[in-house]
């Protein structure tokens, strides 16, 4: 068995000298919030979008564990899709209500 190199924590995430230790990634939580944002509630989509964006910035800066990059990115994208679908559905409902009101007014 080979020991971990000097300066490397047990988790395998390397720390650069003089920087703050990396925080663990929240990719799984962000992905779950993004999926819930698509299926159920757009508010969790907004949360996933904001958390994902912040975490990706921290990963690029080296202050957050980069091993969850793809999960975080996927969760953020799911959050964006959930918000866009919610906005489109709100516009669709407004259009249908307006159209039914218009058709009712002209007697069709």
Secondary structure: elements and pairs:
Layout: H1 27-39, H2 42-61, H3 69-106
Helix pairs in contact: 1-2, 1-3, 2-3
How would you describe the overall organization of this protein?
The protein is mostly helical. It has a domain at 27-83. Helix content is 66%, strand content 0%. α1 (27-39) runs antiparallel to α2 (42-61) and α1 (27-39) packs parallel to α3. The longest helix is centred in the last third of the chain and has 38 residues, at 69-106.
Characteristic key phrases:
mainly alpha
Indicate the multimeric state.
Answer: single chain
Termini separation: 81 Å
N-to-C SSE series?
HHH
Which descriptor suits the 3D outline?
rod-shaped
Strand content: under 5%
Average pLDDT, rounded to a whole number, is 84
Low-confidence stretches: 3-13
Structural class: mainly alpha
Question: How many DSSP-defined strands?
Answer: 0
Rg, Cα atoms, Å = 22 Å
Number of helices: 3
Helix content: 55-70%
Largest sheet: none
């Amino acid at each position: 068995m080979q020991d971990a190199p000097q300066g490397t924590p047990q988790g395998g995430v390397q720390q650069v000298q003089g920087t703050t230790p990396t925080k663990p990634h929240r990719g799984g939580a962000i992905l779950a919030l993004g999926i819930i944002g698509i299926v159920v509630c757009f508010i969790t989509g907004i949360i996933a979008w904001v958390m994902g964006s912040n975490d990706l910035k921290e990963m690029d800066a080296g202050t957050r564990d980069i091993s969850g990059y793809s999960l975080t990115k996927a969760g953020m994208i799911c959050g964006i899709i959930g918000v866009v679908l919610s906005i489109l559905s709100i516009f669709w409902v407004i259009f249908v209500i307006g159209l039914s009101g218009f058709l009712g007014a002209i007697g069709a």
